[in-house]
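ARCHIVE RECORD
Type: protein–small molecule complex
Small molecule: coenzyme A
Source of inputs: curated submission
Record status: active
Notes field left blank by submitter.
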Amino acid sequence: MNKYEILEITPDELPKCSSFWNINDTRLIERKVFAYKIDDEYVGGCALFVRYEKCGHFSHFDVRSDLRGNGIGSRILEFAIQYFKDIGMEKMRLHVLKDNKSAIRLYKKYAFEYVEDITPEKIVMIKIL
Ligand SMILES: CC(C)(COP(=O)(O)OP(=O)(O)OC[C@H]1O[C@@H](n2cnc3c(N)ncnc32)[C@H](O)[C@@H]1OP(=O)(O)O)[C@@H](O)C(=O)NCCC(=O)NCCS
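STRUCTURE (tokenized, with ligand):
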């Protein structure tokens, strides 16, 4: 795997992330956004915010479709876990579609647990940090 960096992205850099994000999603501007950069290209990322006291929220987790299954998502998730630990969060929370089996498998590998249904299609998962 080539050398990579995970960098914070400013709103004006979002167009460079259009291969994996809908860059018109306004939540990307409201949250702290990180992208995975390899060979001068942004190929994946996530958005983070403090949801309530001591609980970080993880969203917009995406890797460019042709690069999935190479460990990039796992590195982004590990980065986010460490980021929230470093700023003193005690929990990390996310939403995932019930039928997104591969993402749920990945979250379980990192000790996220089912908490509740948030809609008929979507669940909340939480990891204690
Ligand atoms: C979820 C996602 C970010 C994971 O990124 P990734 O770079 O594929 O993650 P990794 O390479 O670290 O793989 C993680 C696991 O998922 C599996 N996987 C997930 N999607 C895969 C795909 N399309 N191709 C191959 N493997 C895939 C891997 O085999 C691996 O499982 P393992 O650890 O048991 O071997 C990525 O699949 C993605 O962008 N999916 C579409 C968007 C999405 O569903 N986001 C999550 C919303 S909650």
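CURATOR ANNOTATION: The chain has one domain: 4-128.
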